[in-house]
Amino acid sequence: MLKKKFFIRYFLLLVIFVVAFFWYGATLLNMQIARADEYQRKIQTTYTKTFVVPAVRGEIFDRNGIPLVTNRNVYNIVIDGTKMPRNDYVGILIDLIDKINFYNGEIEQDEFPVMLIDSYEKSQEAHYLYSMMTKTERDRFDRFLTKNKLNINTSADELVEFLTAKYNLDFYMPLNEDGERDVKLFRTVLGICYDIDYSDVLAGSNPYKISEDINRTLMAVIMENSHNYPGAEVLLSYERVYNIPTSAPHILGRVGSIQAEKLDWYLERGYSMDAEVGTSGIELAFEEYLRGVDGILERTYDQDNNLLYENWYVDRAGNIREPVAGKDVYLTLDIKLQQVAEYSIEKTIGKIHNLALKTPNPQLNGADANAGATAVINPNTGEVLAIATYPSFDISTAYSDPKIYKELSESPDNPFTNRATMGQYAPGSVFKIVTATAALEHGDLTVNDTIVDQGKYTRYQGYQPTCWYYPHNHGRIGVTKAIEVSCNYFFYVVGERTGIKTLNDYSRRMGLGVKTGIEIAETPGILASPEVAEAKGEIWAGGQLLQASIGQSYNVFSPLQTATMLGTFLNGGQRYKNTLLLCVKEYGSDEIYYSPAPEIIESFEISETNYSAVKLGLRNVIELGTAAALFNNIPVRIGGKTGTVEIHVGQSSENATFVAFAPYDKPEISMSVVIEKGSMGTWAGFVAEDVLAYYFGSKSFEESMDLPIEIYPEETDEANIIQ
């Protein structure tokens, strides 16, 4: 019995083995012989897709090589619509969104102009409202409605209901047992479906970025499970990093998507539709240098959408299309000087507030001071060393945080305005430099002429302006003394002799009422004239000429223009184009690609006699005249001029203006300051004092910024140590 039992067991095992052997053999024969071609094709079925890889953008440095704007690698999840199945893309999107959220990624803000009402009364029917739209957004949205045969008066709720049906969201996101669903997730999915729809992403017209700057874990999950998310690609991009985000934000500018109205212009120059370009400031001005050349990446997949390998595309000429980095831009700015200037304006406004409290009527003596700007240039080259404005903003958050952006945009102090180049300010008495130069060079005045200041100018019966010193007077004075004491009466007489046409001619030559040539946005200013009066529906009378002669009437210029005017005078009539570009270098290298030469854009001659007389008056302003209380601790001789400008008589404090240059004998710095409602020109001089003190080494950067000074221990002299 035992032998029989073992025989049956062995026999059964033998049968199983024989059956398995023949089944395995038959399968191999079927795969390798009978259906060999079919399986070979399946193994060899692959496809290749190309992707644009953005080139790293050139970085921005100050004149001393301090990095201002650099780059950081960013990995984004991008939807390639050509690989996403049309009949199930919504389900894939929902799975992808869940995965992004699970791994702490962030979904990009969509452009669907409908917002979910977070809380509402049960009696209300509407759960959605339209959000605010710009004209461009409204036009695009209207086109979407028309494309879908919807009335432009369709309500937000009606639109949501229509799109829910169109994208079959009731199937993909059904209600739970309580008749509810995750409304925030629903709104997110709806918004992304809308973006993909109106941008024709599924047709392959545009890639769609669904999540930016993902972490490494999420990146690995998406790439390793690409077969579960057909159409989702992880691509490298770059993010701009602002290393000193609160300094010079108006100058540096920012990058962004190509505006619709400029798309054709960029496409003609080889940009991709989703390229990021400079939209303001330096980023826009030097786009041609900062922009690199995008690369083209080829990725090969099997039929199950698994990534097999990737390499750079090779064109017909055999060129490997790797991305080429943009150039590095070095600015003329000294960023530490810039920071000192920015801080000084803010500090000076606070100081003016305190000084105003010591006056009988603080609100008309500087207590309402609230803004200001300064421009600092090298008069011998036109290079801009600092160009500060207050109030300002943090560029790293101002445009990325909607709440902060809204607050800044609606602020009555207009922090987004670059007052140094776009501000329009009457220069006040600093304009007397132009009036004196024009009169002397045109022959309407000589350095030996004197005029008796009678206090009140009585030539016109209806308008009789006075000198600021009235009821006193300055007596008989010449041009040098008139500049020193800022005698209005003297310049009323000189202005009438010279005439508005000659005054404006010299103003333009010296840089007022015309653009300076700086590469960022600026206004040309306005020169007072009969034509301007007529355009305003007003009458040009003799009194207007008198006011124009002392820098008022319709005269308004930016601080940069006023600094340029002073620099032109200091050069004896040569006006340099203002520039922010020091040089361009190869990316990450000291190899210079381009270095511009100083450019003279206006030239006229100021005689040595006339030049010396006006310049001496500017020195005396600082040492003997209206600004004698300033600059006591600066080791070089300085020249300058104060100005005080009425803006709303009896309603607000006057604007304070100031110009200065140094060293006196060989000027290398020319600057202009405006403090809105700063009350007294001398008080604007506090900013010039701080800037010049740092520039010429009287104060360290830490002292200028009121920072604690780090004290280093004295080095040990090892030679004196007794062993």
In words, what does this structure look like?
There is one protein chain. This protein has about 725 residues and is α+β, with helices and mostly antiparallel strands. About 35% of the residues lie in helices and about 15% in strands. The chain contains 26 helices and 23 strands. The strands form 7 sheets. Strands 2, 3, 6, 7, 12, 18 and 19 form a 7-stranded mixed β-sheet that branches. A 5-stranded antiparallel β-sheet has the order 14-13-23-22-21, sandwiched between helices. Strand 10 (about 295-300) and strand 11 form a beta hairpin. The longest helix has about 35 residues, at about 1-35. It starts with a helix and ends in a 19-residue tail after the last helix. About 40% of the residues are buried.
Q: What features would you highlight for this structure?
A:
single chain, 723 residues, alpha+beta, 5-stranded antiparallel sheet, 23 strands
Q: What does the overall shape look like?
A: elongated
Distance between the termini: 103 Å
Proportion of β residues? 15-25%
User: Largest sheet, if any?
Assistant: 7 strands, mixed
Low-pLDDT stretches are 120-126, 712-723
Structural class by secondary-structure content: alpha+beta
Q: What's the tally of helices?
A: 26
Q: What share of residues is helical?
A: 25-40%
Radius of gyration: 36 Å
Q: How many β-strands, per DSSP?
A: 23
Compute the average pLDDT.
89
Give a nutshell description of this structure.
The protein is of the alpha+beta class. Strands 2, 3, 6, 7, 12, 18 and 19 form a 7-stranded mixed beta sheet that branches. It has a 5-stranded antiparallel beta sheet with strand order 14-13-23-22-21, sandwiched between helices. A 3-stranded antiparallel beta sheet has the order 1-10-11, with no helix packed on it.
